[in-house]
Each structure stands twice: as structure tokens, then as C-alpha cells.
């Protein structure tokens, strides 16, 4: 099968499909029913009295939300120290603290909606193969401590070459241990790894989560919430105090329009009362196809999430495709119910990525690249010590599209050229917690709360540093 995601396999969908069949008026139109759109609807409905309409081109959770690794992790696609040098310590720390706060938001959602979608939370481990890379992590942690962000210790191989290069000021931020302890945490025998950092991580089927939340919203807010699927929007028209979406001959009129389309838009934006938005918007997000594969094993190990940084290029591997500039393959393991009452562990691995200039050419039904599967298999055999020896029977192989904004940060907030339009988009490969934080932030803005300037503000994605803003 071309794109066989375990997360969609598990969706037990019982709802029918409602399409937009006539013109509709609403307070807030949310476009895109992935985790960003559904969580944005959730917080808008919970924290405001607005009527909310969620509109989706295909089906709830069938975009990146149904094709990811499902790791819950606080991570940006930029080093924390880089964010600090670009934007200053306060703004970088604010961004990280806000994304960390999404762990609590996730708990809030689970409690409110009494969710049954399994979620595991545990300590995950990131492995490092070079002292240079470890020094970067120590630099990040030193800056985090300055901003009162809690950090976990980094463990370094007591016999590693180059320990003398580590600046003395970082001494309290790491402990020297036998290498076997590091390899054991990373579940590997590959002696290239000389350092490990632990952090809180989790695993969830984000498609199942989003589908369950959508069902909850439909029943809890029956008078204020509508959901239309198989209703692609082709144009966003912005006016003075509102706008409308064109949907196959129908119009969805709204006072606010929130794009949660992950950036892979197939629509135009017409700002009838101000500067043009379209061109910039369409060039804002570039794409990366991420390839993943998963196999089932006995349910005899606890859940885990591991990342391996600076991994060496695999001998004979397909270097042009896999583990390109900054290789970091990852593995997760979590309980998985294949069919009702048949439980296994599902082990998923990813890492191979392919850049595409034009995200609109990506198709979820495109063939899975065989070379990516070879790379994943080679990586598992070489690195993950619990992988089956020899042939691995991958039950699932899937791919999804990551959208990279120019700043590598998610874009959350009002479009400066017309505040009717708002964004919670741009997944950048790690987006579960940022989407949830973005959803809460959108509800605060719509409620009229004055929020401090943040690295997520749309202005930033236009290439202007927040430090330059008034
Ligand atoms: C391979 C891979 C691995 C990943 N691993 C992780 C991970 O481990 N942890 C993590 O935090 N993040 C991960 N991510 C990122 C994470 O999955 C995304 O950040 C998140 O799912 C984005 O959610 P979203 O709602 O913004 O986008 P999506 O889920 O893509 O939803 C956008 C929706 O908008 C709809 N849409 C688009 N255009 C229109 C239109 N014209 N009209 C109507 N609807 C439209 C789409 O159909 C889609 O359903 C990964 C992503 C990939 C691809």
C-alpha cells in the first residue's frame, strides 16, 4: 500500500459526512480539521461565546495529523541558543515556556472531554555522537536555567575523546558516566554515541485524539459548533469586518477566518480592503516529505521515544535521500491495539526526508519511496538493539508533509494586513504541542486579550525579527 498509516488504521469513525451544501453565516470559520483546527475550535468554544464552523477539504485528521510519528515533545526546529541570539533571551524563553504549557492544556482537554484515546507519558532520550553537539545542548541548557526553565542533566561518556573542549562553565550541567549506561538508555550497542539527554516525552495517536475531540465538540456544543468535511475552500475573501470562504459554489461567511491548513493550501486569498496577501502567503511555507515505517512486536517493553543525533551515514545507504543535512532518525514504541482486544507494541522509525519546493504537488496517495524503507531498515538494524534481526516485517509504511515557515516557527495570530484573517499553521516537523498552544493563543486573541509580542506572531514569518517590531 502506498501510504498506510497506523493512526488512520485505528480510527473508529462512526459519524457520517456533512458537506457544506448551502451558504452559511458564522462568527469564526476555522479552515482545516487536523490537530490545529480541531484544537482551535475546542478553545474557541470553551473560552468564548462565539459560534464556530470548522471546514475541512477531506476528512478530520487525515492530513499531517494522521501521518506523523505521534511523539509529544517540546522541540523547535532551531537550537534554543539560536533563537536566543536571533530574538533575545526573553522572547526565546517565552516561546519555549508557552509550548511547554501545552502539556497542561493537553491534560485539560483529556479531563474536560473525558477522552479515551491512549496517551503515554515517560522520559525519552536523545543520543549524541559528537562533543560539539553536546556542547550545543549544554549551551541551550545554560540559557534555559537563566530563564528559569527546568532542565535535566546530560550524561557524557567518562572516556569520550574531547571532553577537555567542554567549557568549564557548563560543569554543573552534566555528569560523567560509563558509556554502557548511555548506550543502555538509548537501547543501542552502537558505540558512536557518547552523550544522552533525557526529557519528558509522550506518545499519542493524534488522529484518534482529534477525531475523539471533534465528536466531543459536536455533542457538547451542538448549538454553536458545525463541522463540514469534503468541503475544500478555493478562495478566502477578506472585507472590512469579516469575509467569506468560497466552497464549491457555496459561501461560508464569517467575522473571523482562521487558517489551520498546515500551509499546504490550495486556495487564493483576496484582501479587498488592503495590501495584497496572496503572494507572500503562498511562498511562506516550503515542504518536506517525511517517511516512516512501523512493525508490531509483543507487548513486553514499556513505551519509549528515542532520537539519535549526528548519526554517521550508513555504509552503502542511500545518502542522497536519507538523513540529509542534520540526520536525526527517531524510534518510538507504544502499545497498539491492532484490532479490538489484540494488543501489541508498535515500533515506529523515521528520519528519511525529501524536500519539495511546491507543497501543492504533494499527494497523500503517492507511492512510498522504497529507498526510504531500506534506510529505515538499515538504521534499525545498526542502531536499535531490540529490532528483529534480519528481515523486518513492516506492517505500516507511511509518509506525510511537513511545512517549513521561513523562520522555522509555527505562525500563530492575526494577519497584519487584515486582522479578519488569522493563522495557526506551519508544522515544521514537530507540531502536536505547538498546535495545541496555538489553539489556546488564538482563543485568547479572539477574546480580546492583549498578549505580549511572541516569536509565533505572523509578522515574524515575513522575515522581520520581533526585536524590530514596535
Ligand atoms: C512524517 C511526520 C512525522 C511527524 N512527527 C511528529 C512528532 O513526532 N511530533 C510532533 O509534535 N509532530 C510531528 N509531526 C508534525 C505534526 O504531525 C504536525 O505539526 C501536525 O499534525 C500539524 O497539524 P495541522 O492541523 O496543522 O495540519 P494537518 O493535520 O495537515 O491539517 C491541515 C488540514 O487542513 C486541510 N486543508 C488544507 N487545505 C484546505 C482547503 N483548501 N480547504 C479545506 N481544508 C483544507 C487539510 O485537508 C488538513 O486536514 C510530524 C509530521 C510528519 C509529516
Q: Supply the CATH architecture of the largest domain.
A: 3-Layer(bba) Sandwich
- What's the average pLDDT? 90
CATH class of the largest domain: Alpha Beta
Identify the quaternary structure here: single chain
Q: Please state the overall shape, judged from the principal axes of the Cα atoms.
A: globular
Name the CATH superfamily assignment of the largest domain: FAD/NAD(P)-binding domain
Give the helix level as a range of percent: 25-40%
DSSP strand tally: 19
Distance between the termini: 52 Å
**How many domain units?**
2
H/E series, N to C? Answer: HEHEEHHEHEEHEHEEEEEHEEEEHEEEH
Number of helices in the DSSP assignment: 10
**Which cofactor or ligand species appear?**
flavin-adenine dinucleotide
Largest sheet: 10 strands, mixed
Structural Rg: 22 Å
- What structural class do helix, strand and pairing data support? alpha/beta
Amino acid at each position: 500500500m502506498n501510504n498506510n498509516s497506523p493512526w488512520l488504521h485505528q480510527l473508529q469513525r462512526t459519524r457520517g459526512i456533512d458537506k457544506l451544501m448551502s451558504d452559511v453565516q458564522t462568527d469564526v470559520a476555522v479552515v482545516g480539521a487536523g490537530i490545529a483546527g480541531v484544537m482551535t475550535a475546542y478553545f474557541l468554544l470553551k473560552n468564548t461565546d462565539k459560534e464556530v464552523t470548522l471546514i475541512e477539504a477531506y476528512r478530520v485528521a487525515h492530513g499531517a495529523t494522521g501521518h506523523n510519528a505521534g511523539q509529544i515533545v517540546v522541540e523547535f526546529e532551531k537550537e534554543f541558543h539560536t533563537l536566543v541570539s536571533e530574538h533575545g533571551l526573553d522572547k526565546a524563553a517565552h516561546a519555549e515556556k508557552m509550548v511547554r504549557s501545552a502539556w497542561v492544556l493537553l491534560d485539560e482537554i483529556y479531563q474536560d472531554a473525558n477522552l479515551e484515546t491512549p496517551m503515554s507519558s515517560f522520559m525519552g532520550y536523545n543520543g549524541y555522537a559528537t562533543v560539539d553537539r553536546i556542547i550545543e545542548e549544554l549551551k541551550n541548557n545554560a540559557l534555559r536555567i537563566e530563564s528559569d526553565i527546568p532542565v535535566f542533566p546530560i550524561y557524557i561518556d567518562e572516556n569520550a575523546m574531547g571532553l577537555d573542549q567542554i567549557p568549564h562553565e557548563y560543569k554543573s550541567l552534566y555528569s560523567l558516566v560509563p558509556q554502557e549506561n548511555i548506550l543502555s538508555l538509548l537501547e543501542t550497542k552502537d558505540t558512536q554515541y557518547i552523550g544522552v539527554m533525557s526529557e519528558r516525552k509522550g506518545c499519542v495517536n493524534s488522529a484518534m485524539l482529534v477525531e475523539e475531540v471533534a465528536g466531543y465538540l459536536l455533542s457538547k456544543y451542538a448549538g454553536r459548533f458545525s463541522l463540514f468535511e469534503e468541503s475544500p475552500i478555493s478562495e478566502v475573501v477578506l472585507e472590512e469586518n469579516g469575509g467569506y470562504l468560497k466552497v464549491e459554489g457555496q459561501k461560508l461567511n464569517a467575522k473571523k477566518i482562521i487558517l489551520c491548513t498546515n500551509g499546504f493550501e490550495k486556495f487564493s486569498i483576496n484582501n479587498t480592503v488592503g495590501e495584497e496577501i496572496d503572494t507572500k502567503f503562498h511562498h511562506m511555507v516550503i515542504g518536506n516529505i517525511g517517511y516512516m515505517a512501523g512493525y508490531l512486536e509483543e507487548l513486553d517493553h514499556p513505551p519509549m521515544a528515542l532520537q539519535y543525533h549526528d548519526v554517521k551515514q550508513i555504509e552503502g545507504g542511500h545518502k542522497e535521500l536519507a538523513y540529509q543535512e542534520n540526520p536525526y532518525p527517531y524510534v518510538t514504541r507504544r502499545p497498539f491495539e491492532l484490532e479490538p482486544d489484540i494488543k501489541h507494541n508498535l515500533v515506529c522509525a523515521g528520519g528519511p526526508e525529501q524536500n519539495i519546493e511546491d507543497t501543492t504537488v504533494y499527494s497523500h496517495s503517492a507511492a512510498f519511496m522504497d529507498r526510504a524503507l531500506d534506510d529505515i531498515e538499515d538504521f534499525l538494524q545498526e542502531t536499535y538493539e531490540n529490532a528483529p534481526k534480519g528481515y523486518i516485517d513492516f506492517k505500516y509504511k507511511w509518509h506525510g508533509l511537513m511545512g517549513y515557515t521561513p523562520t522555522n516557527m509555527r505562525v500563530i495570530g492575526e494577519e497584519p494586513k487584515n486582522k479578519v484573517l488569522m493563522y495557526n499553521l506551519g508544522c515544521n516537523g514537530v507540531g502536536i504541542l505547538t498546535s495545541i498552544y496555538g489553539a489556546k493563543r488564538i482563543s485568547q486573541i479572539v477574546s480580546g486579550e492583549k498578549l505580549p509580542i511572541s516569536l509565533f506572531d505572523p509578522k515574524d514569518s515575513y522575515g522581520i525579527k520581533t526585536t524590530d517590531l514596535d
